[in-house]
Amino acid sequence: MITNAELAETLFQLAESHPAGDLRLALLRTAYAVFDHPRELTGSRRLPETAALEVLPALAMLRSCRTPDALSAAAHRLAGPNHLRANPSRQGFLTAAEVERAITLPGAPNHRHIRGAAHWHTRASDGAGTLEAMARACVRRGASWAVVADHTRGLACVNGLDAEGVAMQARSVRAWNSRHGDDLRLVQGLEAEILEDGRLDLPRSARPGVLLIAAVHTGLAERRDQTGRLVRAIEEPAVWALAHPRGRLFARRSGIRANWEVVFGAAAAAGVLIEINGFPRRQDLDPALLGLARDVGCRFLLASDAHHTRHLAFEETAVALAVQGGVPASAIVNFEPLDRLASARPDLELP
Ligand SMILES: [Zn+2]
Ligand SMILES: [Zn+2]
Prior knowledge:
This protein is α/β, with parallel strands linked by helices. The chain folds into 2 domains: 4-86; 106-344, TIM Barrel (Alpha-Beta Barrel), CATH 3.20.20. The protein has helices at residues 4-17, 22-35, 56-63, 68-79, 96-103, 131-140, 163-180, 227-234, 260-270, 287-295, 315-324, 338-344, and strands at 116-120, 145-151, 185-193, 211-215, 239-242, 273-277, 300-306. The termini are far apart.
């Protein structure tokens, strides 16, 4: 049987083998629709709703294949003289159907037991929703605590928060907690930039009282080794978690190179959490590296990296990555009550 992963990859390769134009675009859209479809399409009569008319004959031909060899032969027939090429920056990502399967495996951490909804954005930086709308959506998902983590105003985010923006958001967080703190305790975090030399774009004086998530957003396509940059960032004062450590992006880039054993060793020694970013185009870290991080004793933070209320469900993709990487719920802070986080971080002003 052909999986959505195989079918989507074939459609991506076919799209890329065509010159820019309507057909290429239609094939690409269909590839993404298959990739993001929550059920395996084999055996189902339904097609992704977004499949354009001009793609339907090709899609029907590919879906009728029963084996990967037959699929490859059909793809070559459809491509004609054009070359089909795999793209390494698409490898190692879970399709939505694979996520659904992983989170329902026996023994998988139950995503319905997640207490903390961490690392999401609001309109104050590049998110679509207000703090209140995002917090209410966290309540609806059953969270009892949540960490907003808007960008700081670094090189990579001109819409990020400056000192005044951070102070304003702190007031909004306090206002929420005084009104709705029994439903959801909100904690202010910040997604700070890791600069070229491994320092952060946030002065030390601005760090107490927030959960600081350090993230690389620059120099991601470079092939040089960036172990030193990440280790320096991990050792910066008051860092809580290392966000999307590789900085990979589906179909765009494979992310930075580093000696990951050294990076994870530094994180474990410093008590810095390793983030499992469930944003479907990020999926960072991937299961192989998560297994390595687990083996050197890291603890983990599940992140939806939501920029919209409906993105909060991406924490399920993070759970699927944890399942695939063999990371147990006991190593993931989102399954713990907020008080336990507070006891690990005495500098934090928690509500
Ligand atoms: Zn980020
Ligand atoms: Zn983010």
